[in-house]
Amino acid sequence: MNDTLKQAPAGPLAGIKVLDFSRILSGPYASMVLADLGAEVIKVEPITSGDETRNFPPFQKGMSHYYIALNRSKKSISLDLKSPEGVQIAKDLARQSDIVLENFRPGVMDRLGLGYDTLRADNDRLLYCSITGFGANSPHGDKPAFDIVAQALSGVMSVNCEPGQAPNKLGIPLGDMAGSIFSVFGLLAALHERNATGRGKHIEVAMLDSLIALQGYLSQIYFVTGQSPQPVGTQHPSIVPYGSFPTSDGHVIVACLTERFWHNFARSLDREDLIADPRFALYDARLANRDALQPIIHARMTQDTTAYWLQRLEEFDVPSAPILSIGEALEQDHVTRQELVEEVTHPEVGDMKLVRGPIRFDGVGAAKATAPSMLGENTFDVLSSQLGLQASDIQKLVVKGVVKGLP
């Protein structure tokens, strides 16, 4: 491993304390990014079974793959938030925190006695981030929200398929992750503002809003033309040629976003005549004549193998790529050279591989991660070191069922 990455500093958010009430994916991904950036994250989990994702198979020696993927470098405390003592512990921790993160339905944290107004009264520097499915003012506000629901309502699913095929969800849980990503943006901006004003605020992010914000040029196609973009599969709604093209033994991705790349591609096909053909000479002409151009490209590319075309397209400087499986993607040289996978050791599970965060500062990546915690693994330490509770006080809370930790 590169020595600079081995010796990475704690991160630019060192000293920032995050109290994380979120679970499943929207929220845990955000707090994991904050932890990657150096923040201390205390994850509050239900006292019985913890974050629901702890029970999602497959497992590595009893620990869920799902939980592993989203909860590195955090501390876990197990707390009964339905008990007055549990709520008071949460309030005491929030008083010392810079950030509170939650992803319950609107109103749940208020009913628990842990809403923004309540916690702000004791800590006016607190940044309180709420990730919801739809937002408090949405007509869907009280409905349960999951990734696929947000994808369906965002319009994304309608274009994520081949023409004439059934709508499909994205292969990654972008509805959940979009809410997390935008919440990190909001929190970092609010931290910057707090440095100037000394005051915190309530940051609200909805999963559906976030996915709609990521529509990019698709929403603008609708605003400009009045027509919803239609599915084009791997092709592009306004750029041709672009997408997956068949070879004699597979497929290759080609993306000709500029005229120079289109000319290079035509030459790689041994069809330089296509460059001057009025049907294909300009962007709008190629778009209008997509159905005429595609068969010409297919007929030529199916004469040779994927390996042949990857080499030839590289020679002609055409943006291109093979279509890798998840396993192939994780094992490729790029991942190795960028050191995007690291191995950590868990005291009970043993060695496990994790995907590193992608952000680097002055060429240095995140500090080495710590393994995801067992349920309540850090309860006793947090109560002792951060709230000053004595062992006898903690034991009384254990007996009453307010907290749970590891022996």
Amount of beta strand? 5-15%
Number of strands: 14
The helix-and-strand class reads alpha/beta
What is the count of structural domains? Answer: 2
Uncertain segments: 1-7
Looking at CATH, the homologous superfamily of the largest domain is: Crotonobetainyl-coa:carnitine coa-transferase, domain 1
Average predicted local confidence, pLDDT: 95
- Which CATH class of the largest domain? Alpha Beta
The portion of residues assigned to helices is 40-55%
CATH topology title of the largest domain: Rossmann fold
Largest sheet: 7 strands, mixed
| CA distance, first residue to last residue | 35 Å
Shape: elongated
Write the layout of secondary structure elements.
Elements: H1 3-6, E1 17-20, H2 28-36, E2 40-45, E3 59-60, E4 63-64, H3 65-70, E5 75-79, H4 84-95, E6 99-102, H5 108-111, H6 116-122, E7 127-132, H7 147-154, H8 156-159, H9 174-197, E8 201-206, H10 207-213, H11 217-225, E9 242-246, E10 251-255, H12 259-268, H13 273-276, H14 283-288, H15 290-301, H16 306-315, E11 320-321, H17 326-331, H18 333-337, E12 341-346, E13 350-355, H19 379-385, H20 391-400, E14 403-404
Question: How would you characterize this protein structure?
Answer:
The protein is an alpha/beta fold. It folds into 2 domains: 3-214 and 331-404, Rossmann fold, CATH 3.40.50; 242-324, formyl-coa transferase, domain 3, CATH 3.30.1540.10. It is 40% helix and 15% strand. It contains 20 helices and 14 strands. Strands 8-7-6-1-2-5-14 form a 7-stranded mixed sheet, sandwiched between helices. A 3-stranded antiparallel sheet has the order 9-10-11, covered by helices on one side. A two-stranded antiparallel sheet has the order 3-4. A hairpin with a 2-residue loop joins strand 3 (59-60) and strand 4 (63-64).
